[in-house]
Amino acid sequence: MLTGAEIIWECIVREGVDVVFGYPGGAILPAYDALNKYRNKIHHVLVRHEQGATHMADGYARASGKVGVAMATSGPGATNMITGMATAMMDSVPIVCFTGQVPSPVIGTDAFQEIDITGASITVTKHNYLVLDINELAETIKEAFHVAKTGRPGPVLVDIPKDIQIQSTDFTYPTGKVELPGLIEPQGVDGLQIQKFVEMIAESERPIILAGHGVMLSDATQEVLDLANLAQIPIGTTLLGIGGVPASDPFVLGMMGMHGETWVNRAIQESDLLIACGMRFDDRVTGKLKTYSPNSKKIHIEIDPSEINKNIPVDLPIHGDLKTILNQILPVVSKNDNHSWINKIDGWQKDSQRKDIIHQETEVLMGAHVLRKIWEGTKGDALVITDVGQHQMLEAQYYEHEDPRSLITSGGLGTMGFSLPAGIGASFYEKDREIWIIVGDGSFQMTMTELGTAVQENRNINIAIINNGYLGMVRQWQEMFYEARYMETPILSPDYIKLAAAYGIEAFRVEVLDEVIPTMRKVQKHKGPSLIEFVVEKHDMVYPMVPSGADLHEMIERPVQSKNGNVNSQKEELKK
Amino acid sequence: MKQTLITLVEDKPGVLNRIASLFRRRSYNIDSLVVGKSEKPGVSRMTIMTNEEDQRKRGHIYFNLLNLVNVIAVKDVSNLECVTREFILIKIQSGPDQLNEVQAVVNNHGARIVDLGKETVIIEATEREKEIDRLVEDLTKFNITEITRTGRIAMRKGKTHKVSSEKINAQATDVSWVPENIHKYHN
């Protein structure tokens, strides 16, 4: 006989989980009490806020490819998890969140710390459960893990009333495959589709592969590269697709979309065949839908059938697992020569790169230069976790990733405050890898409370705050689209060095480019959390940029600028 | 033409909430939704009617429904031969002097009077929606005080159709990836 509380841990252990991020409270107390018996099998990380727990589980899952687990109490504990679950939902990350619930006899009476979290979380979870019978607990938890990782991954919530945690029953962990008639399991590709695929490639002269997050989730890096090599097709990546294919590969062009590379967006617009692999044509990727890649045929390989034909009508829809499908298709794809197309893109690339800030000297420290130095200083080999905003886009542009799962970032939801907890979570999988958390001063102040967790758990993480004194990306939009009325975007920061000192964290402030690498060397030697504040140019903007709702090829490029920042020249450029 | 979806769902608490939530979140309009027990214990059969005309959006509705874990299968029967029915109860205010006249309308539509009060008559009918609409129209000359309608239920004609969730793959010839093209992969 085991109690419900013991069954929770027993199931978690059997799912191969060894770390849980959580926060105790009234309705989850029995589970926390039972944790005492599982201390040697499970490491519990006490977070400072339940949102942090979900982001940590998320970061752990993205780094490892395994399911991340978070735990919280009922009511406010559960509602604090909503943002983290929504983040995981938008970015297809498998996490399982356990919440305590008030005892089942008082459910529905507005009891203390009662919230209908299964109701509240319907749209931010792939699926959720309220367990009302202890005999269904083990089966439900097994099912939750299965749902989280099967097909298109996503967050699953299991809500367990306190009395169910206290009751006892005979425990048997269900063995064998989970039978869930309602869960779509991906199929392979059929003969006709393969034939059409091959024909479309053979007929195309200007093809491009759009590699998304699905490349990593499906472990299809090699297959995508093989397709590119065989049929001579360049590859553009989405934000979450970064790392899915190595940046140094000659076929890999870089990121597409709103802050993507000009040559990638131009290639997409002028292409005659898009091969979308595990991506969903998000509005940040397409720009204006009506004018998106107007002359191309489109192939869409996607594991979630509801994503096919959602934003962009496609000519060849293929539903299923990317790796499986490419393995079926590769043997029959014939060699192709797209020499002139590739040369054309190369020309655009060379032309565009001349304007890049990275090749220019500036008197003040620029965010772009800092990110490039961090790339150099880590040999491009670190696990990088970014937050949301200008620094996130600069990272995507200037840190070149070679491996899958080497960049963790909140793409779909754009959750500010994601990076510190996600980085702490990831560090429980990547124990020996150099970890850099790149975060803006605005984002950092949203969840910097988790510094306490980082210290208590002695995580070996490096935090790089890119401090420009503004909510930079919002400021950029205000400058571009709201006539430079900077409403509520200047933001005060605490003295981060003193803040770090209060936590016992080693910290440095860097204000000039030459100090970036030497300071990095100092923190790289240090085991445990460390922090560098980079004080950067306040008025810099992220280029290139496709204004929201504009055609993808209507990119605003960085104006060739004067040495002391570039505000005036930017404004002149905009006036044109 | 309206979109009609026959859906098999697990008979569990909250399933209706999930479906309603999906329609609200994605801004799909439900015209009617009827749910009841099916031939299989633990499984309910729903008939959902939407007023979505756009084929691509119909596809979204279909696949988003299918994506719900509690939804076992979905069949878009909009273009298939079906028996469709709706049930209605109508209360009209009418004294004994009008009874013959009411009876004539009721007979004309194959409806029935199921309750005869001092001042009111309750009429029931089971028919296709259009026929029900006509009945209501013909009864408007009396004073209708209450109407309750169930919404459409539908069943495909012919052999027993297992609604399966397997083989949702589109084929290369299906350029539009909409339910009309997908139904042929079901039994």
Structural summary, described in words:
- The complex is a heterodimer of chains A (576) and B (187).
- Chain A is α/β, with parallel strands linked by helices and 576 residues long.
- Helices cover 37% and strands 16% of the residues of chain A.
- In chain A, the strands form four sheets. Chain A has a six-stranded parallel β-sheet with strand order 3-2-4-5-7-6, sandwiched between helices.
- In chain A, helix 3 (50-64) packs parallel to helix 5, helix 12 (262-270) packs antiparallel against helix 15 (339-353) and helix 16 packs across helix 23 (516-525).
- The radius of gyration of chain A is 24 Å and the shape is globular.
- Chain A starts with a strand and ends with a helix.
- By secondary structure, chain B is of the alpha+beta class.
- Chain B has helices at residues 15-25, 55-67, 99-108, 129-139, 179-182, and strands at 3-10, 30-37, 43-50, 71-76, 82-93, 112-116, 120-127, 143-149, 153-156.
- The longest helix of chain B has 13 residues, at 55-67.
- Chain B starts with a strand and ends in a 5-residue tail after the last helix.
- The chains are: A alpha/beta (576), B alpha+beta (187).
- Chains A and B meet through helix 9 and strand 14 of A and helix 1, helix 2 and strand 4 of B.
Low-confidence stretches of chain A: 562-576
Gyration radius of chain A, to the nearest Å? Answer: 24 Å
Order of helices and strands of chain B: EHEEHEEHEEHEEH
Q: Most extensive interface, residues per chain? A: A-B, 35 and 35 residues
- The percentage helix of chain B is 25-40%
Report the structural category of chain B: alpha+beta
How much helix is in the residues of chain A?
Answer: 25-40%
How many beta strands in the DSSP annotation of chain A?
20
Overall number of strands of chain B: 9
Radius of gyration of chain B: 20 Å
Bulk shape of chain A: globular
Summed over residues and divided by their number, the pLDDT of chain B gives a mean of 85
* Strand ordering within the main sheet of chain A: 3-2-4-5-7-6
Regions of chain B with pLDDT < 50 over 5+ consecutive residues? 183-187
Largest sheet of chain B: 5 strands, antiparallel
Determine the strand fraction of chain A and express it as a percent band: 15-25%
Please count the helical segments of chain B.
5
Which structural class best describes the helix and strand composition of chain A? alpha/beta
Proportion of strand residues of chain B: 35-45%
Which overall shape of chain B is indicated by the principal axes computed on the Cα atoms? Answer: elongated
